[in-house]
Write a structure and sequence with these properties.
Radius of gyration: 14 Å
Order of helices and strands: HEHEEHEHEEEHE
Strand content: 25-35%
Strand order of the largest sheet: 4-2-3-5-8
Largest sheet: 5 strands, mixed
Distance between the termini: 38 Å
Number of strands: 8
């Protein structure tokens, strides 16, 4: 297979960060994080999903959490300094991020949004996130991802 180039991969290459690309077959439509973890042969605790929410202030925030976890909206609002946050509608993900549902990477969004990565990533040597395209994942050192996205590591899962 030809090497896939997504915006996230181009950014990692340009900054010379180490990463690995994993691909999986998505023809069955199973693109949820737990299914993806099984397809790429990784434990679900190593695979993270990228969620996008909007605060009461209308600011956009990015949350990266384990695929098995659920975002705690109260904790998410608190770390963002908002009264509340709500997930953006699926139809608006492309507009805000440049990515689609199931292929939303925390790296290389249209704009640089305040990003929060669940602190559980710090216990891992490697974590897996979307490369910005359905069927393509990136294996990366959590510290590199935190640095690259200028993220805060916080507890935001239920």
């Amino acid at each position: 297979m030809a090497k896939v180039k997504t915006n996230a991969i181009r950014i990692l290459d340009s900054k010379k960060f180490a990463y690995e690309v994993l691909t999986y077959d998505n023809q069955d439509g199973k693109i949820d994080g737990v299914s993806v973890a099984a397809k790429i042969g990784r434990e679900a605790r190593e695979v993270y999903k990228t969620l996008v929410a909007q605060g009461a202030s209308k600011n956009i925030y990015v949350y990266v959490i384990p695929v098995e976890a659920e975002l705690d909206l109260k904790k998410a609002a608190k770390v963002a300094g908002e009264k509340n946050v709500e997930m953006i509608p699926v139809k608006d993900i492309l507009k805000w991020t440049g990515y689609i549902r199931g292929g939303c990477s925390p790296i290389g969004m249209r704009k640089e949004y305040k990003t929060f990565i669940d602190e559980s990533c710090l216990k891992l040597e490697e974590m897996v996130v979307s490369a910005g395209k359905i069927g393509v994942q990136i294996v990366i050192d959590p510290k590199v991802l935190v640095n690259l996205t200028k993220a805060e590591t916080v507890e935001v899962r239920k």
